[in-house]
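Look at a sample.

——
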Amino acid sequence: MKWAEQNDIAWHYIDPGKPQQNAFIESFNGSLPDELLNEEIFDNLDDARRKIALWRYDCNAVRPHSSLGNLTPFEARGTLELPDGSAPGALALKPPADYQSRTGRLSV
């Protein structure tokens, strides 16, 4: 919360029963158990960290995503990057100033 405030990042709660309001994390929450946690046995914390890191790399750098036009997330970001390494077009736009969630729980 502090970081978001210091960097002028607007955020709001997801309305109860509306996971589609944050489809990215909902997709992640579905794929992590299906593709990793239910498929692997972790011998210890170091083993878990290694397997999770490998899965994360595979997900971001190797496997294409249909939602990104069959590019990997790294490739998709690369198409948006400027020569200085920034990618302002990759970030979601801020909601309009008059935005209100259905629950009214908006924090800026």
Q: What stands out?
A: Residues 45-62 form the longest helix (18 residues). Residues 68 and 107 are 30 Å apart (CA to CA). The longest strand covers residues 11-12.
